[in-house]
Design the sequence.
């Protein structure tokens, strides 16, 4: 499985997320929670509860507590870190390639007055922190978008303290054989060049020096996420004032069916990984 791909550049990715932030907020979640949900069962259609469940599961797996210093890479609108800080009292920083999303996160943080939390514009491939700055690095559904994944792994390893924990959810590319429909509706749609299979991901983290503690396939949850969101998008499109936004949301709704089909064909997936930077000898 390829690990370094430059079909889309970081600039392509940042432009896409800057240009679509307001549209995503208008139909997905006005608070900016824009990641995959962990659903209770097949009948569960409550996206917001499922999205919060993903965050809480990842926080538990990571073992974040009041003494933790946490970096959220690809933090988007900042909700995961703000939730973590509210629940545990941890300190930390969120970093994202999209200036629009960082502005949203900064405004929300200022409004809440959460102590010890800040948000910064930047890339996973050039983390603006000293070695060993964090006890935890977390990330939800963001690292798949990085064209040079080995470089982002090396950066996350560098900024973690010895014994520190990396805890992430991420999109998976289970196979190299991606058909035309999946390429268009899953990958190109969000400027995603290529990813890892579940095993390939664990191998890549091991290659970067991490001890992999958890590598869990969660495909059923991402399928349910797009089933629920497709329905929501169809409903919201009807009330979108801006014709361009309406067209984009309808396009997204149509893609949701194709995304589920891609999951069924094994061309798209979702996983959770927890890994440790070995303690200093
Ligand atoms: C699907 S969104 C998830 C956002 C957030 N984690 C959440 O749960 O709502 C993916 C995010 O990854 C960010 N991203 C993509 N490439 C990045 C990079 N190289 N460095 C930092 N952030 C990146 C995007 O700007 C976007 O905000």
Sequence:
């Amino acid at each position: 499985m390829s690990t370094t791909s430059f079909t889309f550049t970081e600039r392509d990715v940042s432009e896409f997320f800057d240009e679509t932030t307001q549209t995503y907020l208008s139909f997905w979640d006005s608070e900016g929670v824009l990641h995959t949900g962990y659903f209770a069962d097949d009948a569960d259609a409550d996206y917001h509860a499922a999205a919060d469940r993903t965050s809480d599961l990842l926080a538990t797996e990571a073992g974040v507590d009041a003494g933790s210093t946490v970096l959220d890479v690809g933090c988007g609108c900042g909700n995961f870190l703000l939730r973590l800080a509210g629940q545990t009292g941890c300190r930390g920083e969120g970093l994202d390639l999209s200036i629009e999303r960082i502005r949203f996160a900064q405004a929300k943080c200022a409004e809440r007055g959460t102590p010890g939390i800040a948000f910064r514009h930047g890339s996973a491939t050039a983390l603006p922190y000293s070695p060993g700055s964090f006890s935890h690095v977390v990330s939800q559904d963001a690292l798949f978008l990085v064209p040079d994944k080995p470089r982002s792994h090396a950066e996350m390893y560098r900024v973690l303290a010895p014994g520190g924990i990396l805890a992430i959810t991420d999109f998976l590319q289970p196979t190299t054989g991606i058909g035309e429909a999946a390429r268009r509706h899953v990958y190109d749609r969000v400027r995603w060049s290529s990813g890892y299979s579940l095993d390939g991901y664990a191998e890549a983290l091991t290659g970067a020096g991490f001890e992999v503690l958890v590598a869990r396939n969660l495909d059923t949850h991402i399928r349910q996420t797009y089933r629920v969101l497709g329905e929501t998008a169809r409903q919201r499109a009807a009330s979108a004032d801006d014709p361009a936004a309406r067209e984009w949301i309808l396009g997204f709704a149509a893609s949701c069916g194709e995304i589920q089909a891609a999951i069924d064909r094994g061309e798209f997936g979702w996983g959770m990984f927890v890994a440790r930077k070995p303690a200093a000898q």
Summary: Residues 10, 13, 17, 33-35, 73-77, 80, 95-98, 101, 123-125, 140-142, 145-146 surround S-adenosylmethionine (CB under 6 Å). The domain at 10-276 is CATH 3.40.50.150 (Rossmann fold). The chain has one domain: 10-276.
